[in-house]
């Protein structure tokens, strides 16, 4: 397969890079962290979206190597920011399903934190609802990961099919409301009601809640009124390169 061949090369030749999208606390308007998003500019294929190459990496097993690179790079970068005086921020890393079910995941994450010198408080792992459906294996995995001292966010919430009863038992710290709901909250009373319900549920479960895909001031205002904790989306910034982060933070504060 063409993508597989070039992706293998890309990993050897260091063609991947990470961009970072800011996440802002809605109550005090401070940036609390950045989500890392992998990018691949292939000399042969041009810009390839992760939506395209992550599934290929999953199928071929390249995801282990790719995923470790992403984790190491994100941790290394956050530590570098901290050394430059940009402290107290988390970097969020998206995990794929095979990574999450890797028995060695917690050991690998622990080793990467050691190696990069990043405090576990500086790392958040994003998993999706579908990855938690196998309860027997998700529960101990989440427990071991959180024992490392890092936090776990449930990404794209609302697009999967977790039962609310299960959510109560799931050991997570944060829930990210999928942008498909957020994008219509000022136009659709149904979407506003869904988002309101998710936020209320998070309050009751003592989970931090993030709205993804916030694109307008009107959406931000409504989310603030509904008691949402964190906003992420093009209103604040699209994903940016690591070297743009210090400038972004200066302009922002
Ligand atoms: O950034 P963009 O909108 O192109 O991302 C498309 C999809 O790829 C999103 O669902 C995002 O979560 C996923 N993605 C981005 N970076 C990573 C990564 O480092 N690892 C995994 N597993 N998925 C990622
Ligand atoms: O699945 P995940 O939530 O990890 O996907 C994150 C992706 O969503 C990023 O690749 C980013 O490019 C995209 N994204 C982030 N903010 C916005 C936004 O405000 N609007 C739209 N349309 N896409 C966004
Ligand atoms: Mn994500
Ligand atoms: Na998402």
TrEMBL record:
Is the Phosphoprotein keyword given for this protein? yes
Q: Does the keyword Phosphoprotein apply?
A: yes
What positions does the domain EAL occupy? 1-253
Q: Which UniProt keywords apply?
A: Phosphoprotein
Protein's name according to its UniProt entry:
EAL domain-containing protein
């Amino acid at each position: 397969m063409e993508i597989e061949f070039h992706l293998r090369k890309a990993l050897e030749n260091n063609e991947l890079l990470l961009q970072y999208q800011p996440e802002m606390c809605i109550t005090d308007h401070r940036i609390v962290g950045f989500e890392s998003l992998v990018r691949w500019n292939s000399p042969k294929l041009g810009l390839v979206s992760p939506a395209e190459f992550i599934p290929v990496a999953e199928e071929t097993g390249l995801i282990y190597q790719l995923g470790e690179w992403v984790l190491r790079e994100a941790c290394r970068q956050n530590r570098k920011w901290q050394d430059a005086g940009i402290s107290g921020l988390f970097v969020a890393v998206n995990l794929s399903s095979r990574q999450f079910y890797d028995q060695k995941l917690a050991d690998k994450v622990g080793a990467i934190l050691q190696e990069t010198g990043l405090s576990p408080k500086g790392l958040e792992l994003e998993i999706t609802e579908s990855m938690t459906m196998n309860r027997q294996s998700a529960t101990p995995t989440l427990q071991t990961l959180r024992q490392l001292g890092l936090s776990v966010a449930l990404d794209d919430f609302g697009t999967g099919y977790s039962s609310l009863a299960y959510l109560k038992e799931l050991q997570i710290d944060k829930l990210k409301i999928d942008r498909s709901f957020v994008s219509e909250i000022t136009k659709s009373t149904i979407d506003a009601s869904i988002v309101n319900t998710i936020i209320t549920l998070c309050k009751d479960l003592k989970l931090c809640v993030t709205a993804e895909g916030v694109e307008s001031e009107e959406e931000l205002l409504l989310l603030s009124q509904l008691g949402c904790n964190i906003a992420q989306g093009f209103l604040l910034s699209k994903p940016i390169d690591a070297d743009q982060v210090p400038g972004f933070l200066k302009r922002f504060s």
